[in-house]
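Q: Okay, next protein. This is VPS8 subunit of CORVET complex from Gadus morhua. I've checked the sequence twice, so it should be correct. Can you predict the 3D structure?
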Amino acid sequence: KQGSALRRTGLDPLDSSGQRRADGKTNDVLNNLVFFCPQIDDKEFDIPQVDTPPTLENLLNTDPVDSHSCETSSLASSDSGDPAHLKRKKTVEMNASVHGSVLRHSLLKGISAQIVSAAVSHARTHTVSGVIAVGTSHGLALVFDVNQALRLCLGTTATGAEFGAVSALSINHDCSRLLCGFAKGQITMWDLANGKLLRTITDAHPPGTAILHVKFTDDPTLAICNDSGGSVFELAFRRVMGMRSCDSRCLFSGSKGEVCCIEPLHTPPDLRDHPITPYSLLAMGSLTKILVIGLKPSLKVWMTFPYNKSDPSSVPQLAWQFVPAQKTYNPVLAFCRGDTVHFLLVKKEEAGSIHVVKQRQLHLNCDLISLSWISSRTLVLVNSQEQLQVVDRPSQEVLDQLDLEQVQLVYNSRHFKSLATGGNVSEALALVGEKACYESVCSYAGQILYLGTKSAHIMTLRNWRERVDFLLRQERFGEALALAWSFHEGTAKAVVGLYGDPGKRRGVVADKMVEILILFVERSLKRCPDQGKIQVLEQHFQEVVPVVVDYCLLLQRSDLLFEQLYSRLVENVVSRGMFLEALESYIISQRLAHLTTPIMKDLLAHYHGNGLMDRLERLIVHLDVTSLDMQQVVQMCWENHLYDAMIYVFNRGMNDYITPLEQLLYQYHHHYLIYYVLADKPKCVSSTDEQVVIGNKLLVYISCSLAGRAYPLGDIPEDLVPQVKNKVFDFLIRLHSETSEEEEVFPFIRTLLHFDTREFLNVLALTFEDFRNDKQALEYQQRIVDILLKVMVDNPDFTPSQVGGLFTFLARQMAKPDNTLFVNRKLFDQVLEFLCCPDDDSRHTERQQVLLELLHVGGVVQFDEGSLLALAEKAEFYQICEFLYEKQHLYEKIIDCYLRDNLRKVEVFSYIHNLLSMPGYSPAEKQNVWDKSLQHIQELVALDPSRSADLVTCHFSEHVQPILSQLEVRAPDGSLSLMTEQYGHSEATSYLLEKKGDAHGAFTVLLTVRPHPHHCGAKDGSVPLEGLESSLDDIIALCQRNSQNLNQQQREELTMKVLNAMSSFIPLPDIIQRILQDPVYGKGKLSEIQGLILGMLDTFNYEQTLLETTTSLLNHDLHWSLAHLRASVTRGLVPRQDTCNICLLQYRRRHDPPEEIVIFSCGHLYHCQCLQAKDCGSGSGSERPQQWSCFKCSSNQGGRGGAMADQRRARSTSLAQVGGDPLATLDPQQAQSWDHLRCLYHGPSRVGPTANPHR
């Protein structure tokens, strides 16, 4: 196993292109990165040959997966402990964003060769600086320079045998001193200038523990070490009178929780004056928490932070990094244990104290074993499966992933277990050590070095050009362009090598993207299949052409697109067509408005040749008209009926807004003549599809022109808007067209009205909204209205609906407060007579709807209401009548309108109910409607009996009897009885049955008492007292009215029914007593026995009261007895002492097998065997269980004989019997009570078990 260390000492940093800078300095700390790309000469090293180690060139030119691999097999570390913790699985997550290869993975061949050579045994820990130090298992420290040449070999094998393996290394910031920690606890300091041993420290920490970490601070005289006991010590180096010494101070004791890792804050050279530097901060990670302490000016704990719950085998990780924020740099501590990385921002307050701010966490789905900063925004993480992830901290996005299986990382398990000193560590620390690889991973100045069992590897961030070129070498042009565009826009992550202001950076990236685009086109043309199906060629160029067009337009390089690239793509017919069609989406989205003349010519020819005329039309209306060949485009539009494109070209190219109208109307008339005249179709037949298309375009075009908007998109220039409106109006009101004067007058308006009257009038209505203060426009408005009246009124070519639509339009315009239109009132009367003509039965519903709409928009002011109502009644326009009646508040007459209208008869019920229920109507109006409804009750019942019954129940409940009397004449067949019975009107049903002579049925109905509809009743549905009294009065009245018509048997049946009904709720003796006390029964035969019966009733009442009282007292006494009995037998017995009163041994400490313990109510305790030995039991045998008596109490009474002793023993044994029957000591009354109590509990007695002895 091996480790190494690296620190920069005067190395010249590399610029973005990989060349070394002349000045050897960086501008700031962010650009102070070293890309460690060694150029190794094998002849320089006298080392054995290795099996063809891979070169850097091979790594960069291989497949993206293999490029991160060094072609080595995965071998488990011999120090890794349990292999179960190190199972490696390949889990690669693909990111949506394109980042390319972010990390450059290089193999240090010189150091690797030394590691695998026979001269070097297993290597150990490493540190990183301008030199690389490697510790071996033999106690040697090998120091290499930047060219990987071996400079020093520190130590001897004898020292290694005494101190053990090198377990930790550290180099100070000026590379003058090297600290080596050993597995047996010693620490040595070496001078790197001459290889001299300066110090050997053996008493810095308790003996018997290995050194896990030793690290210099920014102060060269101060270092920190951490041992396998979990303790942390400060090492202060002194030199007095030429004598070197080291003072040790314990900073943290392992007895408070073992520390696994330490990390002092190292300030970059450019930030040596940072206000945090004097505090010399140190971060320590224990098994339970993170601590940040200050070593200077005095020892102080600034922050503690506990971990979240995690796997006990998870390894704590720490890493410091200075991060820019608000023009300042502050250190950020990243730490984790498990799958969550926490960030703490440390800054100094104005008061002088240090403030720690918790920042956003990073959650992962893996257990981390390594955490390193590679830049101020980028982290490099390694999980327990040895998968490396590059994560952007602000966005928490994974930028790159590598598999480190071929590295074969060295694990520090042997040192964490302190095997060299006997393994005297805690189990928790040993478990963490299974995954510990602290000394195998080291980062410095943008470089991370990983040490494996047979090789050393270094990771650095690629600059932006390398990341793009990496994708280009794999011919992933689309991803390379996407990555370059992210550099151009400043959205890329982990960017290295782009300097200067944003404009300069975009220019550099844009030049690179142009090179990629040209290379992409050339490569796609070279690799184009020579033979095959057309679909294969289309698929090939589909992956190229849209990408090229998109990035050219993003870069605003249309010259590159239309000149260099198109000249190459035009060589192939398929690529040429794909290119032209790819422009479509950009033209429609307004990203491309101007095309060169050759491109435009080829575009028209391609779309026309492939029959893509609809798509071509969409393209033309989005292009700049100056790029079009007017003659070619206009001719193509007319030939292929591209009306939108034709309108666009005439409007934008020639400022001609009338010619498109003339041509569209001509096309409409042309189709009209073909369809209706030549084909001899009736005019009532719907228009053809072509006519509908042309007509709709005409209406929309006219609407846009009059509203100042361009068709099909955009706006008319403001200086042309008045001129365009006037021209369009002049065109519409022309008396004749220029082609023929034999046609009817105003042909254009007439054509539009015939096509769609309502929509044309809507267009005019929208236009009239803008005619406020324009005098000329108001003249046009009046002129058009006059023409409309002249064309449509008294013209049989227009339907009533069309004529009504015209007058509805006029009524709306005239109802406006600023109306200036004048329309002769006689025209409205003429239209009214036309619509209300009673002799014309055609289109009755249509004419009524037209007139109703006219009235709703305010046309009623143009008519005399009286004549209008008369005409409406004559024409049977009941909706018109309803409108007028409602306006006059004659709501009762609306009922007649509903009943006469066959289409709306059933709506009369809803109308009556709503008017009588809703507020807003006066009592007189509701009364009129109520009276009118009563007059038409017979019609309502005939129309819908069910809804009529609902209406009567809700609003006419006080007049049920009169209504039924009125309806009985017309319904003698019993349908009314069925109706009232169905809806629960018991009084009405009883009345009808009595009228039919069925007194018995009427009596039965009334006997079933139901809540009255107008009584609120109880919430549970019960009948209130008022309802019961009312029902009872009705039953009595019924019996009195019909008693003369019933025979004796029928009267007895009714009487018995009443008595049976009463006996269900009232005791029978009370009924008999009430009957006998009535004066009516004081005469006749019943009077002779009246006194006897009343006396018997009094005696019965007295005896019943006496029986109830006696039963209550007996039950109370029985309950009291049983309660006391149950309390006594269930009371717990507490022994006075823990020893048996016979053998005097404690029953709890008796070592014999468990036996029964007997406790008496007196508090004495005995072993069962002791009582048997003293013969204190009785009744033993199979028939009766054993009964006991207290030995001590019996002895105090003078022995076990005597009646008194027997009584006392009986009382004692009643509470101390073992497994006995509790009923054996109860008297008969108590036994009976016991059975009764057991029945009440519905199960076996719960008193019996409690009566057994407590054991």
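A: Here is a summary of the prediction. The chain has 45 helices and 34 strands. The first helix runs from residue 56 to 61.
Q: Noted. On to the next one.
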